[in-house]
Amino acid sequence: MAGATPTLLRRRLGEILRTMQMRAGLNLADAAELLGLYGAPTLSKIENGKQRPDLERFLSAYGIDDPAEIAETRKIAEIASTSRQQSLFAQYKDAIRPRFADFIELEQLAVGTDAYAALAVPGLLQTPEYAFAIIGGSNTWQTSREVRAFTSLRMKRQELLTSDQFTLRCVLDEACLRREVGGPAILRGQLEHLMSLSHQANIELQVIPFKAGTHSGVDGAYTLFRFEVGDPVVAVEPLTASLYVEKDDQVARYAAAWDRLRAQALDPESSRDFIARIAKETR
């Protein structure tokens, strides 16, 4: 099979195949021989997401006969095989840095995201002016051309919000609404944009005000990606690298924290009113 750059979803498929191998009571060498592969190193590449598998051969060799498990594994393999073949990567290859590529891939393949924003409005919700100001103010991009390209990519990503097959739930810390990114006029335009987006059926916005005090999001911003099949993935974005949380127990902790955060935040209608009040104060 042709080689492939390992991605989060291909690695996840590899982990599923490794679990099947262990359930079948096979070591790496015996499994490779059963599959007709060129030794254990080839199977290891597949299980680490570096090489695409012949899935039907794996399912047959490992004796997988549960229709539900077969269907889910096939679906995950289908999703993984489309990774990074999308036009977004081709169109913006110069703007998509390696540390951000997995994030965009997960976003494009997810059926929904749950995001907590601590310091700034998330990219999917930004106006062009706000995006240009915040991207230009970062240390990531060196030239105005790079800033324009990444701003354009951010606007292109927002096409997800026009699909009724994709849902976005976001909790915004009050700090996001008050930080004057680009100045008062740009912030006011951003706040008005949030109010408009909050009326979309596939978007839910909540605000957690300063007066709420400490809450379950104080450890920092994160995004939880949900997929048609398979478990969610959590992305945590520190300054120098994106971190991805995939282990069930760790993802469960983020999911529980998200539920608590939503419960602590204002409801969507009250949040819209809260944003409107801040917009009126922003001059």
Automatic annotation (TrEMBL):
<dbReference type="InterPro" id="IPR010982">
    <property type="entry name" value="Lambda_DNA-bd_dom_sf"/>
</dbReference>
<dbReference type="InterPro" id="IPR001387">
    <property type="entry name" value="Cro/C1-type_HTH"/>
</dbReference>
<protein>
    <submittedName>
        <fullName>Transcriptional regulator with XRE-family HTH domain</fullName>
    </submittedName>
</protein>
<dbReference type="Pfam" id="PF19054">
    <property type="entry name" value="DUF5753"/>
</dbReference>
<dbReference type="Pfam" id="PF13560">
    <property type="entry name" value="HTH_31"/>
</dbReference>
<dbReference type="InterPro" id="IPR043917">
    <property type="entry name" value="DUF5753"/>
</dbReference>
<dbReference type="GO" id="GO:0003677">
    <property type="term" value="F:DNA binding"/>
</dbReference>
<feature type="domain" description="HTH cro/C1-type">
    <location>
        <begin position="17"/>
        <end position="70"/>
    </location>
</feature>
